[in-house]
Amino acid sequence: MTQPILTAKNLVKRYGRVVALDHCDFELMPGEILAVIGDNGAGKSTLIKALCGAVTPDEGEVYLDGKRVNFSSPIDARDAGIETVYQTLAVSPALSIADNMFMGREIRQEGIMGKWFRKLDRKKMEQFAREKLTELGLMTIQNINQAVETLSGGQRQGVAVARAAAFGSKVIILDEPTAALGVKESRRVLELILDVRSRGIPIILISHNMPHVFEVADRIHVHRLGRRLCVVDPKEYTMSDAVAFMTGAKEPPPEPAAA
Fold first, then answer.
1. pLDDT for residue 258
2. Residue 61 has pLDDT above 70, yes or no
3. At what angle do helices 183-198 and 153-167 cross, to 10 degrees?
4. With contact defined as beta carbons under 8 Å apart, do 202 and 111 qualify?
5. 3-state DSSP helix/strand/coil percent for the chain, to nearest 5?
6. What are the b/e assignments for 161-185, b being 16+ CB within 10 Å?
7. Where are the domains of the chain?
């Protein structure tokens, strides 16, 4: 039986009297796109933050590749191979594409210039950035040194996804990647997601856009009232079913069949 690559068991997170995660379970299988859906306030964001080190759960355990992990920050998760693209994009508009790709993980020159004078190896960074963008079919961007603020929304999202794909060796988490994009740009980002999955990297996709979820997801994790309500196969259920589970209008299928 295939083991999950990322597992959470019994996660609890409280903010005062508000219970954001209520004994929540989670499983991401190797090479899949797992969509996470839920109403506003269901606890999706807290779950994702707990998985990527941005929030420390009060109780529960997280396992990556079968080994228990305790991330104290997103940098810990990143070092373990989990990359997150947030809804707010987290790109620096004034910096170039190459600088954004390497933000926080710049390549220094070899020898004394890099070691003592902290001089960056711009050529290597630009070459790597160009290769990654080309791999994902994003070379409509001609100049790797142009500022990110000169790009369209879809291109910016593409740079953020390319950065995650370049460095996320185990898992990529995408938080509402098409929320602020038009139809054409959303289409390109969905293609990018499928491209990344085809390289064998599993993806967690948080989205409110049901047509997008049903188009690309292999499984759908329905989150309600701080916990996993059920996991469904998009081939076996309709968008109306998913919304009904999410809102409590319909009884969910039994958990064991979905796990």
1. 39
2. yes
3. 10
4. no
5. 35, 25, 40
6. bbbbbbbbebbbbbbbbbeebeeeb
7. 6-90+171-177+184-258
The pLDDT of residue 163 is 85
Q: Which residue has the tokens 């309500």?
A: 229
Instruction: Give the angle 32-83-38 at the CA atoms, nearest 5°.
Output: 60
The residue assigned the tokens 């929320």 is 179
| Residues linked to residue 174 through DSSP beta bridges, in sequence order | 85, 205
Candidates 252, 218, 196, 164; CA nearest to 35 is: 218
pLDDT at 28: 97
Calpha distance 62→180 (Å, rounded)? 31
- Global confidence as pTM: 0.87
Task: Specify whether the CB–CB gap between 125 and 101 falls below 8 A.
Answer: yes
- Nearest Cα neighbor of 236 from 220, 249, 251 is 220
**Which 3 state secondary structure label does DSSP give 240?**
helix
> CATH: 3.40.710.10, 3.30.70.250, 3.40.50.300, 1.20.120.530. Which one for 6-90+171-177+184-258?
3.40.50.300
**Residue 173 structure tokens:** 């988490």
